[in-house]
Design a protein that fits this description.
By secondary structure, the chain is of the alpha+beta class. It has two domains: 141 residues, endopeptidase fold (from Nostoc punctiforme) (Alpha-Beta Complex), CATH 3.90.1720; 32 residues. 38% of the residues lie in helices and 18% in strands. The strands form three sheets. A six-stranded antiparallel β-sheet has the order 4-9-5-6-7-8. β6 and β7 form a beta hairpin. α2 runs antiparallel to α3. It is globular, with a radius of gyration of 27 Å.
């Protein structure tokens, strides 16, 4: 009788443990880190198309959550669409996630086609802005105040807000496009007004950028 009672207790205990284990919930990992993108090869033609397409977005109005020329775009939406159109590469939607999947590169080693990331928020705690590096220390990005525009990276505002740089495409052609042709010094040749006008335009463009970046809160 005692043995039967002991056996019964063991059976009940086994059933109880089985029932408890069946009620355990699966562990859900929240906000998993994105898988880094394998840097894809790029031809010279594709890289030129990428930069040309980016410049065709200039003037597009800023719309938070947008990603089209017609209706407007934000910074990461434009980047996502550009790489999708030219390379068929699917990048994450936010600038912070795009930074996570890109292969990190040093600022001094950036080439056209690379991504530049910034922390423009007051706390500076996370990436919230991205631009496409186009060479000659300039980038194309979507400003919340002026829409898609081309800006100089040597402005104090962008230097202070700079977070990191990343690469999602790779090609030897990027090195050839790293620097735009320098504008010749026209001080010794005043008979060529077109070059003087070009230099004046560049100087004015830099000054206009300086005026707008004097108010960081209007940038995303």
């Amino acid at each position: 009788m005692k043995n039967k009672f002991t056996l019964l207790c063991l059976i009940v205990a086994a059933l109880t443990l089985g029932a408890c284990s069946s009620k355990k919930k699966a562990v859900v990992v929240k906000n998993p880190r994105p898988t880094p993108v394998h840097v894809v090869p790029s031809t010279d033609k594709q890289l030129k198309k990428l930069i040309s397409e980016a410049r065709s977005w200039i003037g597009t109005p800023y719309v938070y959550g947008g990603s089209t020329k017609g209706k407007g775009t934000d910074c990461s939406g434009m980047i996502m669409q550009l790489f999708s159109d030219v390379y068929g590469l699917k990048l994450p939607r936010s600038s912070a996630m795009q930074r996570e999947v890109a292969r990190q590169v040093k600022f001094a080693d950036m080439r056209p086609g690379d991504l530049v990331f910034f922390t423009t928020n007051k706390t500076g705690s996370h990436v919230n802005h991205v631009g496409l590096y186009v060479g000659d220390n300039r980038m194309i990005h979507a400003s919340s105040s002026r829409g898609v525009m081309e800006s100089a990276l040597d402005l104090p505002y962008w230097q202070q807000a700079y977070h990191s740089s990343g690469c999602v495409i790779e090609t030897d052609a990027k090195k050839a496009l790293q620097k735009s042709p320098a504008i010749p010094d026209t001080t010794a040749t005043p008979s060529v007004p077109l070059k003087d006008l070009q230099r004046l335009y560049n100087a004015l463009d830099h000054q206009i950028d300086s005026v707008y970046v004097a108010n960081p809160e209007i940038f995303d």
